[in-house]
Amino acid sequence: MVRGIALQREAGFRSFELRVLGLLKSSPMRQALWLSLLFLLTSALSLGVTYYVAHNAQERAIQDSLIQDMISFRATPSAQALAVLVNAQTSETDPRRRLLSYRHPGGRVIAGNAAITQKDEGFRLVVLGADPTPVQGSFLLLSERIHGGLLTIAQSAKPLHDLRETFLRVFLFSLLPTITIAVLGGVLLARRAARILADLDAVLSRLTSGELTARVAPESMARGDLARIGDSVNRMAAAQESSMAALKQVSADIAHDLKSPIQRVAVQLADLQQIEDLPVEARQIADQTIVETQSIVETFQSLLQIAQLEGGSPKSRFVPTDLAAIAATFAEIYEPVAEEEGRRLTLSLPDQPVWMLGDKGLLGQMLANLVENALRHTPEGSDIAISVSQNEQGVALTLRDHGPGIPEGEQQNVLRRLYRLEQSRTTPGSGLGLSLVQAIADLHGAGLALENADPGLRVRLSFAAVTL
Amino acid sequence: MKILVIEDDKTTGPFVAKGLRQEGHTVDLVANGRDGLLQATTADYDILVLDRMLPGLDGLSLIKTLRGAGQRTPAIMLTALSGVEDRIEGLEAGADDYLVKPFAFGELSARVAALARRPGYQQQETTLQAADLQMDLVHHRVTRAGVDIPLLPREFTLLEHLLRRKGRVQTRTMLLEAVLGINFYPQTQLVETHISRLRGKGDRPFYQDLIENVRGAGYRIAA
């Protein structure tokens, strides 16, 4: 239970992490971050320069005041008098603001505050804080030799410190919120853009899967370039939908206009057969004509079906399908026919189901076409082997026969509609079987390869692996 | 039975009507969708035979309207459109069966008979019988005159299909769809071969042939 919660939490965290990563990858988010960084750098630079100038001016002011101070001490007549003055002033001034110290030339006698006593002349910045000094803080001090001793005057550097504080505050209270707003805005924009892109992506994959009525919703479109893309997608989809509708209409019209007369022919032939004293010969002609009309219809139906498959619309019926089960079923259905015609149909399947996304009826029709093709073009007594295999790359359906095969240069030609090899002109068939196989393979995004199996033909269909 | 045929084609309509009348049915023939709808709603028919493309009101809309109004009369749709999608569309609209043009009359006749008996075949039998042949549905066993006939699963299904429809012709297309699950025209003698296999096991060794070949139509086991 506890472990479950921990796992759940981990999963939750991971999905959060993924979302953040996803956002960082989106271009609006990256742009927002870059702009924020640029803004931060520019602001920091200009603030830094201003601080530097202000700090220098402040320091100069303190130094000037120290120099001024020093001049008044120079006016004392002797070291003795200077020490007395230093002591007098030390007791009068606020040690947090001003400190003095004077070291006698020969001895150790020191007037004022010993903590700031220096060894050399010049300006210095010191920080007081350690015992035993009662005063703390940073001080700017000036030392100068007067009457052989060293006089040091220190003035609080608090204004400098305050200046730094002020600048830091300016930085914290103005710049950071600005940047936070920029980043948040970026995140919001990025999420919005990501949502629109996800919508576009979803619509596109619905369209490619044959759902031609899919459209990008107007409310999910932002203004600007994404809207234009959404618009184009919608226009493209509408064009494809109307061309599919046109194809359907044309197919329906042709079907109707062609089949109605054929139906009438069939009716008249049936009437003819009913005539009682019809000569046997005439009856045979009628029978033969019925068979011929049926084959016209079948050829025509195959052509229509290929056109419809190439239009791509049946994709919306794709469901998880076990290719091994289809192969097993059709091998079983065709086994008696193969035996009747003196061929042996063998089947080799993996132990597990072989799942793929597809249209079960069409896949069966494809396999039936391949088997019938093999039955027609191979010598009696030969083997026809069906196999299904699966690896990480995908799923393969292979049918191998021991017939004459297809000559090297003709392998692409036999996939063309109504094309027939010279060698098989005399065998029955419409020349549409392999075209239909190709169309069904294309619809499933499968590769179709015709290979020379020496002897015989190997037809290999490779489907992409799917995770269900 | 009383059958309404809605077909605008001037040859096919009368041909269907004549054939059905010869089989002893009472047939009304109308040539457009609007009249068809009116006729179907005002008179009481056992079966509707309608074309998909009709002037006035097309067959799909007609059947949808009928079903929308609660009319359940079994309907066979005749059509020039043979795609699987067209078939699905037709069945979804409410047709009970779907027959692609051009069709032989035997095919239509067999389907009319199948539709007419549809509601009857709901009871759960455990054995089926024809002459001296017995099929045990529970143990998947077939005997003839007491002799065991070992059948493959597909042969068993085929025999069961014919036995359940004793006396009615089952056409090649009907058997393809129902027994082999195939919705396209195979280029080989699939049904014929399966029937001949079944005959080899179930008929040939015995005196009387049970599976009849009905010329120009299909197969049947006599009632």
Task: Give a written overview of the molecule.
The complex is a heterodimer of chains A (468) and B (223). With 468 residues, chain A is of the alpha+beta class. Chain A has 9 helices and 12 strands. Chain A has helices spanning 2-25, 27-74, 79-92, 158-208, 225-274, 280-311, 323-340, 360-377, 433-443, and strands at residues 98-103, 110-112, 122-128, 137-146, 149-156, 319-322, 344-348, 355-358, 383-390, 394-401, 447-452, 457-464. In chain A, the strands form 3 sheets. Chain A has a 5-stranded antiparallel sheet with strand order 2-1-5-4-3. A 5-stranded mixed sheet of chain A has the order 7-9-10-12-11. The model of chain A has no long low-confidence stretch (mean pLDDT 82). Chain B has 2 domains: 2-120, Response regulator (Rossmann fold); 127-221, Orthogonal Bundle (Arc Repressor Mutant, subunit A), CATH 1.10.10. Chain B has helices spanning 12-22, 33-42, 59-68, 84-93, 105-116, 153-164, 172-178, 190-202; strands at 2-6, 26-30, 47-51, 75-79, 97-100, 127-130, 133-136, 141-144, 147-148, 170-171, 211-214, 218-221. Chain B is α/β, with parallel strands linked by helices. Classes of the chains: A alpha+beta (468), B alpha/beta (223). Chain A binds chain B through residues 251-252, 255-256, 258-260, 262-268, 270-271, 273, 290, 293-294, 297-298, 301, 304-305, 308, 313-314, 329, 332-334, 336-337, 340-341, 361, 364-365, 368, 372, 375-376, 428-429, 433, and chain B through 9, 11-12, 15, 53, 80-85, 101-105, 154, 180-190, 193-194, 196-197, 216.
